[in-house]
Amino acid sequence: MASYLVTYDLDSNDADYPDLFRAIESIGPNRHIQKSVWIVKSSSMSSSQVRDFLIKTVHADDSLIVVTVGSNWAAFNIDKEDSKWMTANIYS
């Protein structure tokens, strides 16, 4: 199962993007680790497929990045529960 970092800049005036959040959550096990950063796991989607699935929920002036994440990661000053989740769920 691959792990993906999903990050976005939501430039629309819509302050709420429930469809985007629901779409991310529907992909597989996930963690919302920063305001516009999620880690999501999928056994059936590539990074391009995750991107294509999510762009249906954002506006044309928003931006979205999906990156495959492996076991070689590092973080500073993040929530302890986020760190535990990442340690347990991100691997090659």
UniProtKB/TrEMBL annotation:
GO molecular function: hydrolase activity; nuclease activity
InterPro entries on file: Virulence_VapD/CRISPR_Cas2
Origin: domain of life: Bacteria
Name this polypeptide is given: SinR family protein
Keywords assigned by UniProt, alphabetized: Hydrolase, Nuclease
